[in-house]
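Reply to dn_fold:

You asked what the input looked like. This is it:
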Amino acid sequence: MSSKAYQLNESYVVSHEKQKALYKRTLIIVSISQIFGGAGLAAGITVGALLAQQMLGTDAFAGLPSALFTLGSAGAALIVGRLSQRYGRRTGLTAGFIIGGLGAIGVIMAAIINSVFLLFASLLIYGAGTATNLQARYAGTDLANNKQRATAISITMVFTTFGAVAGPNLVNIMGNYALSIGVPSLAGPFILSAAAYILAGLVLFIMLRPDPLVIARMIEASEQVQNAKGLSASSDQAENKRGVIVGAAIMVLTQIVMVAIMTMTPVHMRHHGHSLGEIGLVIGFHIGAMYLPSLVTGVLVDKFGRTAMAIASGSTLLLAGLISAIAPGDSIILLVIALSLLGLGWNFGLISGTALIVDSTETSTRAKTQGTVDVLIALSGASGGALSGMIVAGSSYTTLSFIGGILSLLLIPVVIWSRKSKR
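and this is what came back:
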């Protein structure tokens, strides 16, 4: 860092007004990038399974694309977290989005030449965009106090909605555009993904200055010099470990349930004669429910607590699993309700779990810890995506939905354990 840049950053450390202004500016910039990022992630969710089904000629591995790009997001989460810890949010998030865009381009090429090997390799790389889109939520919390953190997370997630809902509903348009330029229609949404991820990366690279994590580190270091904590450090560390474990467990469980049911819904609908537009509609409602309620969720998490909203997450996911299990395959309305509840339950779990992670870490290790936790989230999603296809192929979509609903109940003992440990 040059002396001029250091002096500029130092000015934020001594001025609370400049800190508040930077906090608001960071939220705006990250929110803009999330609009593009949301559009980027929608393609893999909406047509990834269908593309694999078409190229492989079987349903048994239809969940593999979701597993692959989720597995790729695991590796990317670790890399983005480490890059952010060392160089700041700007570098880590920019790199993740650009790599995700390159992965989407690879998927398009794989569809053109009908190469399953290239498809799978590209989906792994495409997962970097998913991981980065998720990790961007942390950037808004770097300069937030403990009563603003869940709200800050929610603001950035709300803006993901605009792109995430638009993406699935542009499936037919992008499919027709792809056909007009000689590309298979199911690869069309990945054209949108490539452009969206690269734009998200450019927004962060150009505008995210000064870096919020770098400033937060400098502020914390200054405060530690002024207020030595002495012997209380060891008890704080124990508190941190428990918070990280509970926050991670909440997000891992919600991710498994959400990804498993979501992945096989397009295939389930296709078997019952639904059009690509109808599938896009259901997934659009699902993704909207994943992100749009975030602003209200953040306020609720800050007001009523992390554990209360974690229990609400488990209950909502259970209801989603039961409705999707009993819904007739030709009922668009019930599928919309089930997938909307699935997204809402995930939203409750992600924001409450993320807030716990931020509460339980210091800026000196925060990005690294957040990256590691997101690796676990991604791996759990990959497992859910891979197993979902096998469960449906061996049994049925109804069985998968029941299993997902029952699994979500594990959130309740996790929260009870955390409360007992606290006492």
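The chain has one domain: 14-222+235-422.
Hope that clears it up.
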